[in-house]
Design goal:
Blueprint: E1 9-12, H1 16-27, E2 32-36, H2 66-69, H3 86-100, E3 106-108, E4 112-117, E5 123-127, E6 132-135, E7 137-140, E8 147-148, E9 164-167, E10 181-185, H4 189-201, E11 204-208, E12 215-216, E13 219-220, E14 223-224, H5 236-250, E15 272-273, H6 277-282, E16 287-289, E17 292-296, E18 299-302, E19 307-309, E20 312-315, E21 319-320, E22 352-354, E23 359-361, H7 365-379, H8 388-405, E24 415-417, H9 418-453
Parallel strand pairs: 1-2, 1-7, 2-3, 7-22, 9-20, 10-11, 10-20, 11-16, 12-15, 23-24
Antiparallel strand pairs: 4-5, 5-6, 8-21, 13-14, 17-18, 18-19
Helix pairs in contact: 1-7, 7-9
The structure holds flavin-adenine dinucleotide and NADP nicotinamide-adenine-dinucleotide phosphate.
Flavin-adenine dinucleotide binds next to helix 1 and strand 2.
Length: 454
Amino acid sequence: MTSSETPSTCLIGAGSSGIAAAKALHERGLPFDCYELSDRVGGNWVFQNKNGISSSYRSLHINTSRERMEFSDFPMPKSYPDFPRHDHIARYFDDYVDHFGFRDEIRFGVGVDHVERLDDGRFEVRTTAGETEVYDAVIVANGHHWDPRWPEPPFPGGNSFEGEQMHSHYYKEETQVADRDVVVLGMGNSAMDIAVDASYHARNTYLSARRGAYIIPKYLFGKPVDQIGGAEWIPGWIRYPLMAQLLKFNVGRMENYGLPEPDHKFAHAHPTVSGRILDRLAHGAITPKPNIAALDGDTVRFTDGSEVHADLVVYCTGYKITFPFFDEDFVVARDNELPLYKFMFHPEYGNLFFLGLVQPLGAIMPIAERQSVLITEALRGRFELPPRAQMEADIAARRSKMKKRYVASKRHTIQVDYEDYMRDLANELEAGRDRADAATAASERGAVGAALAG
Ligand SMILES: Cc1cc2nc3c(=O)[nH]c(=O)nc-3n(C[C@H](O)[C@H](O)[C@H](O)COP(=O)(O)OP(=O)(O)OC[C@H]3O[C@@H](n4cnc5c(N)ncnc54)[C@H](O)[C@@H]3O)c2cc1C
Ligand SMILES: NC(=O)c1ccc[n+]([C@@H]2O[C@H](COP(=O)([O-])OP(=O)(O)OC[C@H]3O[C@@H](n4cnc5c(N)ncnc54)[C@H](OP(=O)(O)O)[C@@H]3O)[C@@H](O)[C@H]2O)c1
């Protein structure tokens, strides 16, 4: 795979995924350069991040609880609440870097501008500082929640709408909704948070959705909901029906809150978690609406024919997976599809890795941590990928399973069940180690054979 005994690696990004890889590389003494556009680590969790691409807003709290989100060997402070705010989380990532001592290995304020695969399989990397460097391997950790996906196609009348249209990526604080008539579109977590913010500050708040969602509260039975039945060995097919029953008894039907009935089973869509939206709906502070049909002058018309005056429409319609540093004929995720083995290994290029490129029913950080172990073991020759045909068969099977289970949507191309996927990564690590051992034994046998023959 690599041109030298100890391969050199370019790591793109020092968000929570990038720092997990940087630590794993640092601990194994593998040489790497980590490029980070911003002046600090933490990516999305840095409100008003100088990289200009964080989707964080002033009121953002995590929706995966503290104990589920923390790295395995660096607990979050016990003084933190169960669902800390963005600044707690950003500080935690900063502390992680200092605790494990690899800050000096991150180049802050320097981004990766272009990556090109050379004929010998290595990568030529050009940075925003205008430098060019050649690496044996590239790890991509540039995040997948920063490039806004606007409604496709745009709603009729959008061009002449007299109010403001904004994507949730650009929502930063309550002043943007204060004293305005606001339509929030979507049923994901951005829509929940922004509708709740608006419900306290806007003149009127409408929550418009093309389909319903099961809204999961942050607590059940006084425990963070993602800490209930979360042991890694319990498979999703046991956990989710159980959780669906618990929700039915605790929260009840979504229609009771005026929301559309979900058109799918529980856990067949990315989870929508909110401890506050149902309360605001119950107080009449948010008016549910079906999908937008059209914008007209200063009015939004919905698919049921009703109309409201609107100063602002916030499209909480999700994100695109984008790699601006790759040429499109090299790597592109059209419609958010990128066929990767185990969501991290490029089946064609064994020295190109992707980190945190999953949408878990659970937190991304421990996943990126475990993925980093597989990558760094591969880099030092202690993990071997299966043959390409086997990887492609696995990718195809996984894709077809995902398509069968999840609501058809561009937001559902990289879904994983947290526990199942973590277990899968652990098994893959063992299998990859066995393959590496077998390959070493075979090449030793070959060397002995050649020596005897010689
Ligand atoms: C509003 C919001 C709330 C969320 N809440 C949760 C949650 O509660 N729990 C959860 O698990 N997940 C949550 N997520 C998902 C989120 O993606 C992860 O929490 C986390 O940010 C992923 O980390 P990352 O390092 O992969 O990406 P990011 O945090 O996006 O970090 C990417 C880093 O790469 C850098 N970078 C990008 N391009 C380049 C380049 N060309 N060169 C150099 N550096 C570059 C960026 O500056 C950034 O620092 C949320 C997402 C959003 C949008
Ligand atoms: N910590 C937190 O509290 C928090 C807050 C915000 C976001 N997040 C995370 O950030 C990520 C992105 O979340 P997100 O809410 O921004 O995006 P998302 O999960 O992709 O949700 C997008 C929503 O917009 C709808 N939608 C998309 N296109 C549409 C269209 N053309 N017309 C009508 N509706 C449309 C989708 O409906 P369909 O399902 O029908 O496609 C879905 O309801 C997720 O991982 C989420 O968990 C976390």
